[in-house]
Amino acid sequence: MNEKKYKGIIQRYKKLLPVTEKTPVVTLNEGNTPLIYAGYLSKLASKNMEVYLKYEGLNPTGSFKDRGMTLAISKACEEKATAVMCASTGNTSASAAAYAARAGIKCIVLIPSGAIALGKLSQALIHGARVLAIKGNFDAALDLVKKITQHYPIKLVNSLNPYRIEGQKTASFEICDYLGDAPDFQIMPVGNAGNITAYWKGYKQYKALGLSRRLPAMLGFQAKGAAPIVKNEPIKDPETIATAIRIGNPASWQTAVEARNESKGLIDMVSDAEILQAYKILALKEGIFAEPASAASIAGLLKLIRKGYFKNKKGRIVCILTGHGLKDPERAIKTVKSPKLMAANLKSIIKEIGY
Q1: Do 59 and 135 sit in the same domain of this protein?
Q2: Residue 41 to residue 282: CA distance in whole angstroms
Q3: Which of 6, 95, 109, 295 can bridge 278 by disulfide, Cβ–Cβ 3.0-4.6 Å?
Q4: Is the pLDDT of residue 89 over 90?
């Protein structure tokens, strides 16, 4: 049987990743996600700006987490680990469980009780993870995971694991490969802050190797009720509909700030109302269904447009869509109207649809 050329991010970018011939590659053919031109958003931005959407929801488990997880699980297996553990608001648990199942090792997940979208939790459970809900938020769950993995033979696979960042940086490689260079601006959601850290690392690495000419301004957006970096203090009880970024004390806080400062970018916040508006615009105008946390990047773009940030500027903007909309179907159901019940009558249906 002939294998397809593309096998996943480790095989594609092996020379740029901390792997050797001894590393057993645990892959689900992650990466290679589309970079989609956004015509409607481009018109809103400026006549001299092009907006692209990096749709990470088309990774195997539906989120960007797969990029880092393939490397974290592969390295865990290289180190003969028999179990991995993470704290999660949903996407990490789904990814860790899937890759652990692929590797044939145990996965343990701690989640904040009542704060996880059912679609995400169901993924971790169906892959056989041992999921435990704690009476506390994500930050409390992560603190427990750190203590447990320090004292027991279990590998931590949250973004504190450096291999997670190494895998996630490959998305910036793909963007450069597609565009022929780095974009002028990159806009993305910021939760635990590992992803903005990873992208910035990847862009710097590509430029240092002469594989791109420029570095983008990194523009990150937190949810208003979970914006510790913006407010410059941890949030004890973060709250937002965008559960994937409902984090009050980001693990990669300092490196996210460094990415912002080094790139001459910014980290700002958007309200839940702005996130929901962007969520709908993305679906109705660009035909893309992304989870609410992903819409934070579009809400950020719209906020910057309103403030005139891109006035008299030209170039390319890439917005990162971190997860698929099917991660949180409950939110979509709450956002739209139920189908109207009609009699099975041709004339009444034709009248209803306006013909």
Answers
A1: no
A2: 9
A3: 295
A4: no
